[in-house]
Design brief:
The chain is mostly beta strands. The chain has one helix and ten strands.
Length: 193
């Protein structure tokens, strides 16, 4: 009886030691996504693939400067989102993906005078971060999900504060390769100042 218990213990210990590298091993990726919303405001149509159906889809996205709802001035915005992903496998074999995102940038206000852009002197900064985790479906399946970052545009005075939203798509292939795309950026139509 004692020999049987020690064999179970040794077999159990061996299985844990064999599984330990898989549980500890982590796959990580970092993506730098630059965005440039400068120039005369407008729209464009882009084509993407729906992550759930795989079918092509089109959407109209805004281009050029944002309209600040607090001051009614155009604001050119330049920024960068640094998105890091870490994939880990728990003891049950479930793959978890932790996403960390940091978005930073600046903006400058302008108006059109006689058809020519004229800088108003207004400047804006933003520095936002978020982190979240999701679990992947069964091994070998492709996964895609969209997420949004709320960016607080901070002006010189609190009355100038407003919100921009960056919309991203994260995609994990059936082999575990991660891709991140920025789909669009939009401004909230209400002033937060």
């Amino acid at each position: 009886m004692a020999g049987f218990k020690s064999q179970r213990f040794i077999v159990g210990l061996a299985l844990v030691l064999l599984a330990l590298p898989a549980m500890v091993a982590a796959q990580s990726s970092t993506f730098i996504v630059n965005f440039d919303r400068t120039g005369i405001p407008g729209t464009t149509t882009i084509s993407t693939t729906d992550p759930m159906t795989g079918l092509p889809t089109t959407m109209v996205v805004d281009t050029g400067a944002f309209l600040n709802p607090c001051t009614s001035e155009n604001v050119d915005v330049l920024g960068t989102s640094s998105i890091s992903t870490v994939q880990t496998i728990d003891k049950f074999g479930t793959v978890k993906v932790t996403v960390s995102e940091v978005t930073r940038g600046t903006g400058s206000g302008w108006i059109l005078l006689n058809g020519v852009p004229s800088f108003t002197g207004s400047t804006y900064t933003f520095n936002e971060s978020q982190q979240f985790t999701f679990r992947l479906p069964a091994a070998g399946e492709e996964f895609a999900s969209d997420f949004t970052d709320k960016i607080a545009m901070k002006g010189a005075k609190s009355i100038d504060n407003w919100i921009v939203r960056a919309h991203f798509r994260i995609k994990v292939s059936s082999t575990g390769v991660v891709q991140v795309f920025m789909l669009k950026t939009t401004a909230d139509p209400t002033c937060k100042g």
